[in-house]
Write a structure and sequence with these properties.
Largest sheet: 5 strands, antiparallel
Strand order of the largest sheet: 5-4-3-6-7
CATH topology of the largest domain: OB fold (Dihydrolipoamide Acetyltransferase, E2P)
Strand content: 35-45%
Radius of gyration: 27 Å
Helix content: under 10%
CATH class of the largest domain: Mainly Beta
Order of helices and strands: HEEEEEEEEEEHEEHEEEE
Shape: flat
Distance between the termini: 62 Å
CATH architecture of the largest domain: Beta Barrel
Number of helices: 3
Amino acid sequence: METLKILETEGLIELEKKNIIINSNQKLQGTISISKKGDGFVKLSSGVEIFVPNQYTQSAIQGDLVEVRPYGVGKKRRLEGEVTEILRRGRDLYRMIVTEKEPKFIFGKLLDIDGEEKEGYLLRKTILTDLQEEIQSGDVLIVKLKEETEHEKNLYEVQFLRFESDTKEDLDLMRMLMKYNYNILYPENIILDLPEEVDESTVDDWNERVDLRNLKCITIDGEYSKDFDDAISFVEEKIEFDFTYISRMFLIM
């Protein structure tokens, strides 16, 4: 009943005695989660979830920002609806393992996606001839969904970016970054207003810190390094030694 009151406050439903009237003109936005059965759960900003049956999720993928139209209350007294539009994909990049090569298409399975199995396909004419021959079944490609095309359910046209093996970075790390849509490059549009020097006037919690600037350190970092992250310092105190690494202190007996 508490959930129904929240929905009534948001203008999604009207409660008339034992009847629940759905305002079908309402379209809401939220992030969708997809179950293994393919059903969707769209979480609204209020915390309320709208259940979206498998056949009404359209081409939504786990984590997408979608527009959903509520159409009724189901048997479990939960609000149900349908996805009307994919507003923004939850990820920029996807991994696809090649499963089949045809004269006009290259098909593959999209990896690291929750819910039902999803496939991607490349138009051969969008790839250089040499690359078409180089791509083989079992290869893992890094691809991007083509947003300007209509996608069938669980089948998506993709754009080839590169082979997964082309990166010099750790593959497991790159897979995690892609799955959760993190970028390893620092955004150029973020400007940090940091002080040139660190002292009492520029650090709010100065009194809560331990001042170790009087310690002499040995470092393997270069003369002009601005990030001394490989430095040690020893201080003899009776029969104990304080071992300092960067700005942390450990006691060695």
